[in-house]
Amino acid sequence: MNQKIFVSAKEVADRAGVSRSAVSRTFTPGASVSEETRRRVMEAAEALGYHVNHLARGLMRNESGLVCLIVSEMDTPYRSSLIRAISHQLQAVSKIAMLINTDRSDKSVDDALRLAISYRADASIILSGMPDKSITDLCVKSGQRLVLINRDEEREGALMINLNDREAAHRAFIAFQRAGCRRLAFANSDVGTPSLKAREEGFVAAAIEAGVEVIVERFGPTRYQSGVILAQRLLTREARPDAIFCANDLLACGVMDTARHQFKLTVPDDICVIGFDYIEQCSWSSYDLTTFAQPVDQIAKEAVSWLTHPAKTDSIASQISPELVWRGSVRGG
Amino acid sequence: MNQKIFVSAKEVADRAGVSRSAVSRTFTPGASVSEETRRRVMEAAEALGYHVNHLARGLMRNESGLVCLIVSEMDTPYRSSLIRAISHQLQAVSKIAMLINTDRSDKSVDDALRLAISYRADASIILSGMPDKSITDLCVKSGQRLVLINRDEEREGALMINLNDREAAHRAFIAFQRAGCRRLAFANSDVGTPSLKAREEGFVAAAIEAGVEVIVERFGPTRYQSGVILAQRLLTREARPDAIFCANDLLACGVMDTARHQFKLTVPDDICVIGFDYIEQCSWSSYDLTTFAQPVDQIAKEAVSWLTHPAKTDSIASQISPELVWRGSVRGG
DNA sequence: TTGTAGGCGTTATCAA
DNA sequence: TTGATAACGCCTACAA
Fold first, then answer.
1. What CA–CA distance (Å, rounded) separates A242 from A235?
2. With contact defined as beta carbons under 8 Å apart, do B189 and B251 qualify?
């Protein structure tokens, strides 16, 4: 069964009446081959169905063309749009994404990076979790490029792309104030990843600075269902909040639906809501959510261009300020 | 810079005081190595940070461990959940997904398959588009396994997993009839992929058989925005439909939102809606959509288990009947 | 511009 | 159980 019959460069060479090297050169951009030789080689290759063996090529060149994408919960709207953008950018520079599914544990991220090393991946892009320093050091030492997206932790030799979560949270607070909201709340998941924490801290800090109190509620993963629970907890309080900043859009959707359908509240009249991520669903007319836009394409471009450009060896941090997209879930604006 | 310094089996062997073969055997499951040798090798490997080079291993074994996933519009909820399920299943059998982003053209699918051949992928799984027969033949001839999901076209030597779209559409018709709907409509995209066509044809056929007329409207890609347009077209007709079967859930969401917010209709009292796919958003309380569930996990399992098991050489077709998940967008039930 | 020779890191084979 | 040796398919000098 597993008798894979691939045609090798030698066979092409024989058929074209040239040497193996000539075949190799034909498929190496910028190598010196005569027009005539190239033509004959291409003809033979076409006829035989020859394809350069990227495994063998990677072995020689020490460059596999593979880039490892490490993600958990990849079917989440924000994640999947980021994956799409990154894989698109990678293909534009003739690289290809190896997708690795991790659970929330950092151990599984370590394993993923080990796999990346085994496949001699040119780079690894980490969207979820935080690997151990020893393993990232090994990656970097092996010449692998490392990109950490929204990980908010330092790693030597890596590119770190982070959003300015605190500043964004501050702007959310101001938006609520302008809308005349009095009783602010922050709805967070309880997974406690750095960026989620930063959003909460930034929001609370801004409020304290202004002498305003904030209710913070945390529950579950950053999903719709958690938003439902969070809304139930927040909206049954004695002093019902009239503004909720949600750690991400999925939570916001759950919060809005619950506020409307279960508590018969009107958005934005009774309660204002702001989210984070800019997932497509939030533009649907059932939500029309004011939210911070993660610039997915920009993130992908920065990551990939750094992979291809020979950058400095010391680590680089990139700070991006997400744009606040005004829609109908906040009064005024 | 690009000076990748990887530690090889030889270095490990030297440090452990054994031969390269011993190292190789240590990392080959089921090979015969003494406990003592294994221990010393592992120790040296650990100290040096050795990782088996999968590129070289793939070269020898003629088995790369790579499986090519060919998808377009991968950030769509249904697609991303399928990708997640498949990559998860692949990892369970120690394979790894190479993700390839294609646009709608079949040409790019051909290119993707060429890439799969170049990387000596053990298999390719096609979720979008339909490649040329010549290229799939080459894949199969090269010993690559081929899986076509919802492609509805025959390819020699491939596993074809299809949903029974016609039968599902028939059940949708019956559901509407039981709900007492009189004026039926089908909302489709105009991209005309086989499964979308089949759903339309099945629905229309069922209606004709029962002597009922159906309005069919087609527009744009299978996205929310198309649903908005389709609803506008359908709901401004003289004889406004009181039941709409949508080719997929995203269309259904757009249709429902538009019916409610723009036309002030009530679901399911004024109009019943059925979707297709079972994306998470449809369970949100703003939609609560009755829909056909694509058994994503089952599809993934079937695909991956076929890859690993040495199956017959002739092509195999698998027909799956999607379950109708009853929710609040259809009366009665 | 072309061909020859050697090596990349691994595994399979075979003899010890 | 172990070690030497020959592939795997390719690329890169080097010499012609």
1. 9
2. yes
Helix (H) or strand (E) holding B129: none
Q: CA-nearest residue of chain B to A256?
A: B286
DSSP A118-151: HTT-SEEEE-SS---HHHHHHHHHTT-EEEEES-
Residue A310 has pLDDT above 80, yes or no: no
A165-294 has which CATH code? 3.40.50.2300
The predicted structure's pLDDT at residue A30: 84
Give the number of other CB atoms < 10 A from CB of residue A134: 9
Pick the CATH number of B66-163+296-321 from 3.40.50.2300, 3.40.50.300, 3.30.200.100, 3.40.1190.20: 3.40.50.2300
The residue-averaged pLDDT of A100-114 equals: 91
Contact B329, B288 (CB under 8 A): yes
pTM: 0.95
Tell me the helices (H) and strands (E) count for chain B, helix number first.
12, 12
pLDDT at A313: 60
User: What pLDDT score does A194 carry?
Assistant: 92
- A187 neighbors A227 (Cβ within 8 angstroms): yes
Is A79 in contact with A127 (CB distance < 8 Å)? yes
Instruction: Judge: B88–A101 Cβ closer than 8 Å, yes or no.
Output: yes
Task: Tell me, yes or no, if A60 comes closer than 8 A to chain B by beta carbon.
Answer: no
Q: How far, CA to CA in Å, does A130 sit from each of A114, A136, A155, A194?
A: 14, 10, 10, 10
Distance, in Å, from the CA atom of B104 to the CA atom of B87, rounded to the nearest integer, reads 22
**Tens digits of per-residue pLDDT, A38-84?**
999 999 999 999 999 999 999 998 899 999 999 999 999 999 999 99
Which residues bind near strand D, taking a CB cut-off of 7 Å? Answer: A 6, 8-10, 20-21, 24-25, 27-28, 50, 52-53, 56-57, 59-61; B 18-22, 25, 32-34, 36-37, 56, 59-60
Whether B152 and B125 have beta carbons less than 8 Å apart is answered as: no
* Cβ neighbours for B37, distance < 8 A, ≥ 6 positions apart: B16, B18, B22, B26
Is a pLDDT exceeding 50 seen at residue A1? no
The Cα–Cα gap between B273 and B250 comes to 12
Low-confidence ranges of chain B (pLDDT < 70): 1-4, 104, 310-314, 333
* Mean of pLDDT over chain A: 94
Predicted confidence (pLDDT) per residue in A265-309, tens digit: 999 999 999 999 999 999 999 999 999 999 999 999 999 999 988
Closest residue in A to B3 (Cα) is A143
Q: Which of residues 257-316 of B touch strand C (CB under 7 A)?
A: none
DSSP characters over B242-269: SEEEESSHHHHHHHHHIIIIIT---TTT
Domain positions in chain A are: 9-52, 66-163+296-321, 165-294
Distance of alpha carbon B286 from alpha carbon A92, whole angstroms? 39
Query: Residue A55: its pLDDT value, please?
Result: 95
Residue B268: cis peptide before it, omega within 30 degrees of 0: yes
Best CA proximity match to B313, nearest among A324, A2, A249, A180: A2
Q: Report d(CA A17, CA B202) in Å as an integer.
A: 57
